[in-house]
Specification:
The protein has 11 helices and 12 strands. By secondary structure, the protein is of the alpha+beta class. The chain has 3 domains: 126 residues, Alpha-Beta Plaits (2-Layer Sandwich), CATH 3.30.70.1050; 236 residues, Trigger factor, C-terminal domain (Trigger factor, domain 2), CATH 1.10.3120.10; 103 residues, Roll (Chitinase A, domain 3), CATH 3.10.50. The strands form 3 sheets. Strands 6, 7, 8, 9, 10 and 12 form a 6-stranded mixed β-sheet that branches. It has a 4-stranded antiparallel β-sheet with strand order 1-2-4-3. A hairpin with a 6-residue loop joins strand 9 and strand 10.
């Protein structure tokens, strides 16, 4: 008969059958210190007496299960069991004790640990206390400067009649009636075309390439460069144009924050499938009734002015909050917790992957720019996390709370926008487990309001211009800005808006 190994002396059957309430583990925190990366390190010591008491219990388990030469199972004297299995019992004791003690420390101290605790520098010599460093990733301690000393400057844009008329014309254009006709494309016509874009090596570029794209000649369009649109004039259905387009783009240097300007030439091949004449509706009271719940054209203009004013107010608010947070982040140095940055990166990557998939691309298509993409994503994620933590610190200092009345008011507002009953919106949020998300959204908004109440805001006047849309230079997918984080799904506005109708086609 051979002596059992420590592994065979600790089978699963030796474990307690039921979870009993754990007694507090006596310990001492010898040192507490902060480390870079938003880490809290607790140097911990457990008295030898505590270890020995628990080693005795583990040895009892070993004794019942161990097979030792010369003795029936479970009948070996404890002295012999200790001699043969004492080292293994101590190792098992420490392996059980450390995780339990880590959980106890986190609970007793009310620590909000952002990731699984880590244990380093574990020392467990017989006859000596057990010592180890408990490493916790926590939110950083942020000491805010005096908020009243923060100054921001925002521009106020005038909402004038020209802006309202520009918006009205946009709605009118969106409700134009398109009628297919024979003949060549004339200025002002609409064209339905298949678009194929290739790079300098002849490879198809997925994002701008598409089928059945409708563009209007004589005006800019975000989906096609103006020089390509202009080249369509004079072409008929079945004919095509091929236009090289050179644009400067910013390319990020791999591994760094620097960017360089590069010119790229893509070839746009456009095959005309249909030529359509465009008939614009008259701007009258009937038009206002067609596009929304308006009694007259003046009522539509009033709504547009109100909407523009609200959007301008939101823009000013967002700009002021962004400036204020930026100045706070410049004034206070702290690390963004690694786990929160990783979560922000994952969310951004998921959004980008969905976008790339929608245009027939993948990260592999970015080629050498992938390194710059990862670096940019990491920096963006760190900045977002730092801004979120700074806003939380402002809220904590201002003792910002979200009450049940706040929740009710927000749900009522959402219901009014969606044309539904508040109870239905609440039921939807509860079913999707989004009430906590809504509460966080309200807390951030109230905190931002509190921040704006504290900082000094200087407003300058600038008249808004009702300029035309300009086609954006074509860039690769990696250069696109990332989508903003979504609010709870139930907050989506479904109220009827002017200009929501699609183009009509005979």
């Amino acid at each position: 008969m051979t002596e059992s190994t420590p592994e065979s002396a600790t089978p699963e059957s030796a474990a307690p059958e039921a979870e009993a309430p754990r007694e507090p583990i006596e310990h001492t925190i010898k040192e507490e210190k902060r480390q870079p990366g938003s880490l809290l390190v607790l140097s911990t010591e457990v008295p030898e007496s505590v270890i020995e008491e628990r080693v005795g219990k583990v040895l009892d388990e070993f004794r019942r299960e161990a097979t030792i030469p010369g003795f029936r199972r479970g009948k070996a004297p404890m002295k012999i069991v200790r001699t043969r299995l004492g080292k293994a019992a101590r190792g098992e004791t420490v392996a059980r004790l450390v995780p339990d003690l880590a959980a106890q420390i986190v609970e007793e101290r009310g620590i909000e640990s952002l990731a699984e605790p880590r244990v380093e520098n574990l020392e467990s010599e017989a006859g000596s206390p057990v010592t180890f460093d408990l490493i916790l990733e926590v939110k950083p301690e942020i000491k805010l400067p005096e908020l009243s000393e923060i100054e921001v400057t925002i521009q106020e844009r005038e909402i004038n009649a020209d802006l309202v008329e520009h918006q009205l014309e946009h709605i009118r254009q969106a409700n134009a009636v398109l009628t297919t006709r024979e003949g060549a494309v004339e200025e002002g016509d609409a064209v339905v075309a298949d678009v194929t874009v290739t790079d300098h090596e002849g490879n198809r570029v997925a994002e701008p390439s598409q089928e059945n794209l409708t563009v209007r000649t004589g005006e800019d369009d975000p989906h096609m460069p103006r020089e390509v649109i202009d080249a369509l004039v004079g072409k008929a259905a079945g004919q095509s144009v091929e236009v090289p387009v050179t644009r400067p783009i910013r390319v990020q240097e791999a591994g760094g924050e620097e960017t360089r300007e590069e010119e790229v030439t893509w070839t746009w091949r456009v095959e005309v499938k249909e030529v359509k004449s465009v008939r614009l509706p008259d701007l009258d009271d009937e038009f206002a009734k067609d596009v929304g719940d308006f009694d007259s054209l003046d009522a539509l203009r009033e709504r547009l002015a109100t909407d523009l004013a609200r959007r301008e107010e939101d823009r000013q608010r967002d700009e002021a909050v962004g400036q204020a947070l930026g100045k706070l982040l410049d004034a206070v140095s702290f690390d963004a917790p690694v786990s929160l940055v990783a979560q922000a990166q994952f969310r951004a990557l998921s959004r980008d992957m969905e976008y790339l998939k929608s245009v027939g691309m993948s990260l592999e298509d970015l080629g050498e720019e992938r390194m710059g993409y990862w670096d940019s994503m990491r920096r963006d994620a760190e900045q977002r996390v730092r801004a979120e933590l700074m806003l939380e610190a402002v809220g904590a200092q201002g003792e910002i709370e979200v009450t049940d009345e706040d929740i009710d008011e927000e749900i009522a507002r959402m219901a009014a926008q969606a044309g539904r009953k508040p109870l239905a919106i609440r039921a939807q949020l509860e079913a999707r487990k989004q009430l906590d998300e809504l509460r966080s959204h309200i807390r951030r908004r109230k905190t931002a309001d509190h921040l704006l109440d504290q900082v000094k805001i200087t407003r300058t006047r600038a008249e808004a211009e009702a300029g035309k849309r300009k086609a954006a230079p074509k860039k690769k997918a990696a250069a696109k800005s990332k989508p903003a984080a979504k609010k709870p799904a139930a907050q989506k506005t479904t109220a009827k808006k002017a200009g929501a109708k699609k183009k009509k086609s005979d």
